[in-house]
Amino acid sequence: MRTLFRAPGPRRGSLALLALVWCVAALSASAEEPVAAQTTARERELVVVVPEDAISFDPARFVRHQVTEILQRLLYRRLLTREGGAFGFDLARAIEMVDERTWRIEIAPGQATAEGRALSPQAIARHFQRLLQDPAFDGSPSAARGRFEHVASVSAEGESVVFRLHRPWPGLLAALTREPVALVGPAGEVIATGAFRIERWDPGNRILLKRVVPAGEGAPARIRIDVVASAQERLRRVLSGQAHIAIGLPAGALAKLSTSNRTKPVVVAQARVHFVEFDVTRPPFDDARVRRALNLAVDMQALVDGLMDDEAVRVATLLSPVTLGFDPQVPPIGYDPLLAKELLAAAGYPAGFDFELDAPATKWREAEAIREMLARVGVNAVVRIWSDWARLKEQILLGNRQAWLGEWGNSSLDPAGSIWPKLHSKGEANYGGYRDDALDGLLEEAETRLPPDERLAAYATVQRYLRQQAPMLFGYALYEVYGVDSRLDWAPAADGALDLGAARWRE
Q1: In whole numbers, what is the pLDDT of the chain averaged over residues?
Q2: d(CA 410, CA 325)
Q3: What is the rounded distance in angstroms from the CA atom of residue 129 to the CA atom of residue 63?
Q4: How many Cβ atoms sit within 10 Å of the Cβ of residue 240?
Q5: N-term to C-term CA, the chain
Q6: How far apart are CA 498 and CA 73, in angstroms?
Q7: Does the pTM exceed 0.90?
Q8: Per-residue pLDDT tens over the stretch 139-166
Q9: Do the beta carbons of residue 179 and residue 186 sit within 8 Å?
Q10: Which residues touch 12 (CB under 8 Å, ≥6 apart)?
Q11: pLDDT tens for residues 323-335?
Q12: Fewest 10 Å CB contacts: which of 117, 297, 399, 432?
């Protein structure tokens, strides 16, 4: 057995991991009375506006849904966390990899809910057993089962919870950082374990929560989550002081928030990455020199600065800065049109070549900007705009397209969830037919490295290799922009999760 990491105290420890969270200060004001002015500092209510209601308070009844995850983060604790750019411990205090299909999570002793219910290994194991059972909920499988599809069983053994897997799954620890842990009552009901409890729920309108555990100075005693469908209205409310945090804002919100002395923008890179994908099964894109030349010919930083209104960050590969294992030491391919021309000549295209560049209607401006840049090195990209992605994808899969503007999301925030689907030869979303035995080997080797530090080092090697081979024209990750009361200290966690309970007033 190998202990991978252990908390130095009863609850918390860390293992380095990288994320990008930028907080930008604000500058002018609006005239309405802010809601926080009506309450004392001790009883302050944090008001948050969101685009839609939560699906359920039950961890077993949802898959991936932002507002539901926000709510459940307040109601439930987790085994592991990611805090301040690191793995941290919550209910757990140590991790052991017994073998490649068995993980032992040691639980810190003596823990209980605010009401005194014990958070024992047996109680925690029962929660996960409930997620895994197939005939749950009136004969329907648990919605959460898909979050742990590689887990065969969970059991309590001594002071630990043991996960046994169908196959090796290095992503287990990342999954556990996002997984709420509930207690299961005698009738199968779920019992909250976290710092907050539901006071009231008006479906489709409002959720009121009350803190039930002590908190530090400036922490909210209550949280009110208002459902506001209009993005413009959510922005208006936070700018006017009617809300302290606004989620899901319209384009251009960053500029408006940055000119208010009542609010500030908080921005974090999304996990979704945007790029140009090539059909690499035939010339000219089967030549790495050509692909690298196109990366050198497109000034992606200028494109981001000019078209994205400072609401995007350039990326070197398929990993966003918020993805586990992102390596900031791997820089994006630089802009060098002279070197691009040299590579094109060496590949047999001294006068460039012609090809069709496809784009969904939402990306026509990017496609035109790329076309103009490629023309400077003699490459003629004829832009074709498609009304929707579904029609374009159909033609791509039939082998009828040459290059297209695409994007890929990764809700797991695990590196395998970004690179494998798009670039492994057997990846389910490898639409360009990219096949590289060396890359396949690197990816497969990375997934055999179960200790987290070894696995991240393996993915750093993968990122350096991708930069060299340039299998696609790498692009950018958009920022998610949040409006935040300027008196409030709050930002998304390193894994992109929105922990409203961590908000603190500075006065």
Answers
A1: 87
A2: 13
A3: 16
A4: 18
A5: 49
A6: 8
A7: no
A8: 556 677 888 889 999 999 999 999 999 9
A9: no
A10: 83, 88, 89, 90
A11: 888 999 999 999 9
A12: 399
- Taking a C-beta distance cutoff of 8 angstroms, is the pair 457, 330 a contact? no
Q: Give dist(CA 348, CA 215) in Å, integer.
A: 66
Which H/E stretch holds residue 164? strand 160-165
**Is CATH 3.90.76.10 the right assignment for the domain spanning 2-195+486-505?**
yes
Residue 5, pLDDT > 60, answer no
Determine contact, residues 70/498, Cβ cutoff 8 Å. yes
Report the pLDDT averaged over residues 475-479: 93
CB 56, CB 42: distance < 8 Å: no
DSSP state of 148: G
Mean pLDDT of 280-307: 96
The CA R_g of the chain, rounded to the nearest whole Å, is 24
CA nearest neighbour of 415 among 446, 453, 437, 454: 446
Q: Which of 214-223, 448-457, 498-507 has the least mean pLDDT?
A: 448-457
Residue-range domain boundaries for the chain: 2-195+486-505, 273-479
The kind and range of the H/E element at 50 are strand 45-50
177 neighbors 87 (Cβ within 8 angstroms): yes
